[in-house]
Design brief:
Layout lengths: L12 E7 L12 E7 L5 E6 L2 H16 L9 E3 L6 H12 L3 E2 L14 H17 L7 H12 L13 H6 L14 E5 L11 E5 L2
Parallel strand pairs: 1-4, 4-5
Antiparallel strand pairs: 1-2, 2-3, 6-7
Helix pairs in contact: 1-2, 3-4
């Protein structure tokens, strides 16, 4: 029969990959961006990582916060592009502990594991836009990555039935936008520990 365009249920197949940034000093000494993308909904999660221990911490955070609380989501299979990256085996072993089957390539993609790769290009373009528009140094790219991804997941897409956003299909609820702030915009942060009125009460900063 004709190959399916994507999986039918959230969690039926998730793909993971690593995005290695240019060699530059980064916030929290981040050395890579770890990405997870659901094939059915397109929901993508990104986590900055700096060490192997940090990777396992982020994976546990994703599972505990984004999978366990939702009864309609059961992660069954995962795949990657078999790149020669040491951390790939770490992720594979972690998924196996969770009882998730590792598959080398999704059949409906004709031996091309491009589930996660297709999101890197528009995501990195949005990151460059965030950094450039606000004139923020590349040092803050980990924060820009997480902000760009979370905002991208709120947008409707023709890839999903009814042009639903990945956020809505994954969480089964409409996103709320009142908490969103302009990323990188200038702000003032009040120091509530200062008791002396003659001392500086706040300092300038940026929304990250």
């Amino acid at each position: 029969g004709k190959p399916r365009d994507k999986s039918e249920l959230p969690g039926a197949l998730v793909a993971f990959d690593f995005w290695i940034p240019p060699r530059t000093a980064a916030l929290y000494s981040v050395s890579a961006i770890f990405g997870l993308r659901d094939d059915a909904t397109g929901m993508t999660f990104v986590y900055p990582v700096s060490t192997k221990a940090d990777l396992e911490t982020q994976l546990n955070k994703w599972w505990r916060k984004e999978v366990v609380p939702f009864e309609h989501i059961t992660v069954k299979n995962c795949c990657c592009d078999h790149e020669n990256v040491n951390l790939t085996e770490e992720v594979r072993a972690w998924f196996e502990k969770k009882g998730v089957e590792f598959v080398p390539s999704p059949p409906h993609h004709k031996q091309r594991t491009n589930i996660i790769e297709t999101v890197w290009r528009p995501l990195t373009a949005m990151v460059r836009k965030l950094l450039g528009d606000q004139d923020i140094v590349d040092f803050y790219f980990p924060a820009a990555f997480t902000a760009a991804c979370s905002r991208m997941m709120l947008l409707p897409t023709r890839r999903n039935f009814g042009c639903g956003s990945p956020y809505m299909l994954w969480y089964n609820r409409r996103p709320k936008g009142e908490y969103i702030r302009v990323w990188g915009s200038r702000c003032s942060v009040k120091n509530f520990g200062v008791k002396n009125k003659l001392e500086q009460q706040a300092h300038s900063g940026r929304y990250l």
